[in-house]
Amino acid sequence: MNQFVAMAVAEKLAVMRTAAFFSERSGRADLERFRGILTRPAGEKPRPDDEWPLSSEVPKRMTLHEAKSRLHHVIRALAEGLTLERER
User: Fold this and answer.
1) Hey, which of 53, 61, 65, 66 would disulfide with 57, CB 3.0 to 4.6 Å?
2) What is the DSSP letter of 29?
3) Half-sphere exposure of 40 toward its Cβ, with a 13 Å CA cutoff?
4) How many Å separate Cα 14 from the centre of its chain?
5) Rounded to an integer, what distance in angstroms lies between the CA atom of residue 59 and that of residue 28?
């Protein structure tokens, strides 16, 4: 049950942070400049360090087990950090 609550809290915090991020970013948007960038003529070719990686360089997708394990470690670290903050 604790794991379920921890995951729900972590998900809710992530949603709230994401909403705050996009809200703040949208307030700084310059739509005229954005339209200008989208409609500009083609420029230079991509630099050598700015190209798509070869398929052999693309990292493999994480398995569900790996994702759950990482999430568990993040939640535990967050919980320990919150505990430490409260003790101060």
Assistant:
1) 53
2) -
3) 8
4) 9
5) 34
∠ CA 78-25-41, nearest 5°, is 130
pLDDT digits (tens, 9 = 90+) for 28-54: 888 888 888 778 777 777 677 777 666
**Which token pair is 33?**
């400049």
CA 63 vs. chain centroid, Å, equals 18
The DSSP 8-state label assigned to residue 28 in this structure reads T
Backbone phi, psi, residue 65, to 5°: -60, -45
Mean pLDDT, residues 57-61: 66
Q: Residue holding tokens 């470690």? A: 73
The neighbour count for residue 71, using CB atoms within 10 Å, is: 15
Distance CA 66, CA 64 (A): 5
